[in-house]
Amino acid sequence: MSTLAMTQFWSGRKLTGKNTVSLSETPEWLQSAYASVFRDLVMDRLREFLFAPGPERSLRKVVDLGCGPGDWSLRFLDFADSVIGVDVNGHFLQVARQAVQAHAAAKQAVFVQENILEFADYQAADLVCLGACVQYLADEDLDLLLSRLADKMPDGACVYLRTTTSHPLRKPYRSSIGHYRAGDDYERRFFRHGFRIARHFLSSQVIPERVARDLCGGKNFLGKILWWPVRLVDLARWHNDHMNWILVKERR
Description:
Layout: H1 3-11, H2 28-51, E1 62-65, H3 71-76, E2 83-87, H4 90-100, E3 109-113, E4 127-131, H5 139-152, E5 158-165, E6 173-174, E7 179-180, H6 183-192, E8 195-202, H7 203-216, H8 220-236, E9 241-249
Parallel strand pairs: 1-2, 1-4, 2-3, 4-5
Antiparallel strand pairs: 5-9, 6-7, 8-9
């Protein structure tokens, strides 16, 4: 499927229940519960990285590309002076605009209906979020997006990118709805466009590692022990992986 076809596909989708934009066959209530916990824990990781070792401060601007119904955008309002959510789907944005009204910082959020390849307002953006959307871009469009970010974002700004990658024992492939690239394919593109990988982790690691941290004061070995059964099930079921990267734009 071309990027244009994928844009047309997503622009016509509707939400079911409280969320979810996912195409998974997992029950909606379970997806929603997991997504909420996962989002909170990833936000904790982002804040620890962005504000370590000093005190937490407000980011000037966060751009949430492919923001969907705005669930991540709302969380960014907790530590950003302004948030711009960008999505091609007007229905998702209507849900986001309604949801943000209950937030104390509602006036600091703007939601824009636009293709993420055409959006260009990255000046002063301390953080750009690409959550589960780049797998719907063709290779040349992914490179175009990364190049635009590198050209327009300030030096030292960060990108949080989460995507579905091919199974480690399976060749990269394309389906009717996405491009499932290998993790090292993404990493080569990051380096080529001037981004340094500061952190990377699988989505399946996030909850086990947090449980271990709470139980044992941050001892990583228990997190790995708790995570490996989950990992082995994923490998046995021949699932795709779900990778997360925190990138830093290097000085050009």
